[in-house]
C-alpha cells in the first residue's frame, strides 16, 4: 500500500505528542513492506534534520507559515494535494485541526483514515475562532473519514456522544522498551543528582500545568530536591516567557527540548515524574516514564486515568496544595522503582492494528454490524449507528 501521512509537524526529532506517535509508528509500518510518506512542515525542519528518508519512511517537506492559528490548515491543504499527486491508497490525517481537510481529500477520490488525538479545542492557547475551527475539524473528520482511530476510550466516548459515531477503532499510543542509560554526565552538567530531583516533560503551553508544578515545588520547600522540566514552546508567547521567568525565580532546571541520551538520562535518574496537565489525549511522556519504572504523580483528568495507575497516583487538577502534598508523600518514600503492565502500549502490535485498518479501507470492507471486544493488542472496534 502507498500511505501518505499528513497533519503532523514531521519526524524525526520534532517536539510534540503526535510527532512522537508518528516517529514510532511509521518506520514499523514501512518495515512491513508498505510505501509510507510523511509530509513535514518545512518551518519545523532544522538544518541538521533535512533528509529525504527516515528508517524506511519517505519525507517530503512542504511550505507552511509558522503561525499557530492557521499553519496546520494551510499545510494540510497543500499536503492533501500532494497526496493526490502521489496516488496514495490511504491518506492518514492526524489530529482534529488538519481533519478539516478530510472532505476535500474525499472529494478528490482518496480513502481517508483520521486519528483523533484528543479535543484540542480544550487547549488554553486557542481563541474563540480557533476553537470553532477545531470543533469543525473534529466534526468533519468524524463524519467524512472512511475510518476514525482514537487513542483512548475517553475520545471514543466524545465522538459517540457528540456525533453518534460508534465504530471508531481504539488503538492506543505506544511506548518503547526503555534505553536505560548508565551515564550521568548530562544531568551532572545540569546541576542534578540521581534520585534527587522531580522531572516533567512537555511543551510550554498552559494546559500542561507547569505553572502549577513550579508553584507546588516552591511550597514543597525541599532544598535537597530539584525540579527539572524538559521541553519548550513551539511559538514563544506571553505564557511561555512568563513560565520561564517563574522557573528561573524558583531555581527550576529548564533543559529545553531534548531527545535521545540526554532525555534517557534525565528520566532514568529522576525520583519522581509529574504530569499536572489540564488536557491530554493519551500522554506518551507518561507512558515513557512508566516504562522506566518511575513513580508518578498525575492530574486526575479522564485522559490520564489509565487502568495501569493506582488511585494514589492522582491529585485534583489545578489544586496546587494537593499537588505539593502528593509530591511530598511520594518523595518521603525515597526513589522506589515500580512495575507497570504496559501490554496494551506495544508499538509493534499498534502498527499491525493500524495496517489492518488501512487494508480494510483499501479493500472496501464494510464496517462491522456488531461490536467487538477488541483483540487485546490496543485495538478495539465498536459499532456505529449509521454511516
Entry keywords:
17% strand, disordered C terminus, 387 residues, 6-stranded parallel sheet, 9-stranded mixed sheet, globular, alpha/beta, 15 strands, 36% helix
The amount of helix comes to: 25-40%
Low-confidence stretches: 366-378, 383-387
Tell me the strand percentage band.
15-25%
What does the overall shape look like? globular
String of helices and strands: EHEEEHEHEHEHEHEHEHEHEHEEHHE
Q: How many β strands by DSSP?
A: 15
Structure classification: alpha/beta
| Tally of separate helices | 12
Radius of gyration: 21 Å
Largest sheet: 9 strands, mixed
The N- to C-terminal Cα distance equals 25 Å
- Largest beta sheet: what is the strand line-up? 3-4-2-1-5-6-7-8-15
Give the rounded overall mean pLDDT.
90
Question: Can you describe this structure?
Answer:
With 387 residues, the protein is of the alpha/beta class. Helices cover 36% and strands 17% of the residues. The chain contains twelve helices and 15 strands. A nine-stranded mixed beta sheet has the order 3-4-2-1-5-6-7-8-15, sandwiched between helices. A hairpin with a 2-residue loop joins strand 3 and strand 4 (57-62). The radius of gyration is 21 Å and the shape is globular. Mean pLDDT is 90; it is low at 366-378 and 383-387.
